[in-house]
Recover the amino acids of this structure.
């Protein structure tokens, strides 16, 4: 395993974990050993007379119960399936250059090569143990009907022997953003971890800990009957006790393995690895921005971008251009990208993009009419335009439900259509007599302090001041969320939240398995449960204020597109964007918030007049 200090520390901690397993086994066998001594002593005449016969049978019965319980716990630990990260498996035939790079790296590090390579839609890389029989490769497609049936089709029903070496999991954004040399430098300490992982003591300790963790998960699942709940409760208590006993040793063992891997990898591309680590942080920032700002709006519309990894390159290139870092990246972008190590990078990117949508949004497992892929060229029309018009239509449906009338100004034509003027008139806060009489102008934005208290308006202690201060204090809720401009605005926000909740409840359930027999890279669908999705939600549910602001912004953009010649666009860092004469329109968000929070439409009306938007004209909705 090598002479690294970390490796020796990891082995000593692994032996401590195995000693805990041995002690648990000894405790389980102790009553049986006492029973054997009593039985042998009785049969040979050495332990007879008095209460020994009764004691002998009591101890024998107790030993049988303890052995039965220990066998049941051992069976649960052995058969429990350890958790596996959802990944996209990469066959060697689809990425021979990538496998060659990893094997050459393992040879330079003098460690065993990983057994396989998989991709994950995240900016991280690690080794994952998949030696459990349940994590073996699936049977061929033509044997699906008899898979797992013993004695059928010769040896086809026998469980496959899982590979001993761990699987190398690589973050898919790394392959598209990093160059080949940078990827090799980043993977060096990860691949070096296969050396300590191959040691028998460390491997056995890891299997024991993973088995205990999986058994705890099994006992935590809801059972059907009271007897099953009682049995699982006992098994769960024992496994949790063992897991707590070896938790500290297991953590120190993993730290030792990581230290040994880092020490062994220092001799491989050390200088380049320092530069590559900077690209890891940059890739993480761009990936997070792309998911939250660009991919999430598409997922909400039933579309999933099929080239997320290619999009992160565009997002990071745009970020470097805005931050004036393009000169520093120009030289590295001329080198060979790591995605060239794949035979079909487009298919792999599509599979990783679908897995990302499944993990971060909980989308279906396969494409369909309501869950279709979208290319970046089609994103403005398929996602941005449809999102804005759908939200604008929802806004007017809620206004209809609230009984809001259409504008009755005789100078405005096209009465009765979905107009922006209707929204502006409804959200405009009516002037309060108390504020007009006192000549006070309350700035709501100054009132939104962290403590949620009002601000002093003037130095005179008048009744009007007290009333306005109390009103300002109530504008910040108990949760710190600013209260909307008026009761009508709050009612509209609540109506939008209820309408959106009804639409989500009426949506069909997601599919739980893969589609047909397409022989292209795809995620491991069978190792995780649909009820856990999404595993990593990107954002918490939007509040009523955020929903209202988004819907008003969508209505403004629809009016700009239909009456001022604007167009939907895509900003790689900010997501959907409104383009006017090919240039992104700015300063719209703060003006919409002023209308929503303060009930003041004048900043937004000035913005509309400057662009030539006509609020009184009806817009086209979905």
């Amino acid at each position: 395993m090598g002479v690294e200090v970390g490796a020796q520390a990891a082995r000593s901690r692994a032996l401590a974990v195995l000693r805990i397993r041995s002690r648990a086994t000894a405790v389980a066998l102790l009553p049986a050993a006492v029973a054997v001594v009593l039985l042998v002593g009785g049969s040979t005449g050495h332990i007879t007379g008095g209460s020994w016969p009764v004691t002998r049978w009591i101890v024998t019965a107790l030993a049988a119960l303890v052995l039965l319980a220990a066998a049941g716990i051992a069976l649960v630990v052995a058969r429990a399936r350890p958790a596996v990260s959802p990944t996209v498996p990469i066959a060697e035939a689809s990425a021979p250059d990538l496998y060659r790079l990893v094997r050459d790296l393992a040879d330079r590090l003098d460690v065993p090569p990983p057994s396989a390579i998989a991709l994950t839609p995240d900016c991280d890389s690690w080794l994952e143990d998949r030696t459990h029989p349940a994590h073996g490769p699936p049977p061929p497609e033509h044997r699906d009907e008899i898979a797992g049936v013993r004695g059928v089709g010769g040896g086809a029903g026998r469980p496959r022997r899982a590979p001993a070496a761990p699987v190398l999991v690589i973050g898919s954004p790394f392959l598209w953003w990093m160059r080949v040399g940078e990827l090799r430098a980043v993977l060096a300490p990860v691949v070096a971890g296969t050396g300590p992982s191959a040691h028998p003591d460390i491997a056995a300790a890891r299997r024991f800990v993973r088995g205990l963790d999986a058994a705890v998960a099994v006992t935590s699942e809801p059972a059907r009957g009271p007897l099953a709940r009682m049995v699982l409760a006992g098994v769960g208590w024992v496994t949790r006790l063992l897991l707590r006993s070896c938790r500290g040793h297991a953590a120190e063992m993993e730290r030792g393995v990581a230290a040994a891997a880092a020490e062994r990898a220092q001799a491989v591309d050390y200088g380049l690895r320092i530069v590559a680590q900077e690209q890891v942080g940059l890739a993480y920032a761009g990936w997070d921005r792309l998911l939250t700002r660009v991919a999430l709006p598409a997922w909400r519309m039933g579309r999933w971008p099929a080239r997320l990894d290619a999009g992160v390159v565009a997002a990071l290139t745009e970020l470097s251009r805005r931050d004036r870092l393009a000169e520093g990246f120009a030289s590295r972008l001329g080198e060979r990208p790591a995605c060239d190590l794949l035979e079909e990078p487009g298919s792999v990117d599509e599979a990783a993009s679908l897995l990302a949508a499944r993990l971060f949004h909980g989308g279906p497992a396969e494409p369909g009419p309501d869950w279709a892929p979208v290319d970046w060229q089609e994103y403005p029309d398929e996602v941005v335009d449809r999102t804005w018009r759908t939200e604008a239509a929802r806004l007017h449906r809620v206004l209809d439900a609230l009984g809001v009338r259409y504008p009755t100004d005789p100078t405005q034509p096209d009465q009765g259509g979905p107009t922006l003027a209707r929204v502006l008139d409804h959200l405009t806060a009516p002037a309060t007599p108390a504020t007009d009489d006192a000549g006070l102008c309350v700035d709501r934005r100054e009132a939104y302090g962290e403590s949620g208290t009002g601000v002093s308006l003037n130095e005179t202690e008048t009744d009007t001041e007290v009333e306005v201060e109390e009103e300002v204090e109530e504008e910040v809720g108990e949760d710190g969320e600013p209260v909307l401009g008026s009761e009508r605005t709050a009612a509209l926000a609540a109506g939008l939240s209820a309408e959106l909740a009804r639409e989500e409840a009426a949506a069909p359930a997601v599919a739980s398995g893969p589609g047909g027999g397409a022989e292209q890279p795809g995620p491991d669908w069978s190792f995780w449960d649909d009820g856990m999705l999404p595993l990593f939600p990107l954002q918490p549910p939007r509040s009523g204020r955020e929903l209202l602001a988004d819907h008003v912004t969508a209505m403004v953009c629809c009016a700009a597109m239909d009456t001022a010649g604007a167009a939907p666009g895509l900003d790689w860092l900010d997501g959907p964007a409104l383009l006017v004469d090919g240039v992104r329109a700015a300063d719209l968000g703060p003006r919409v918030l002023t209308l929503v929070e303060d009930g003041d439409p004048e900043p937004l009306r000035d913005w509309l007049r400057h662009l030539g938007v006509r609020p009184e004209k009806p817009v086209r909705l979905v």
User: Anything to note?
Assistant: Residues 5-44 form the longest helix (40 residues).
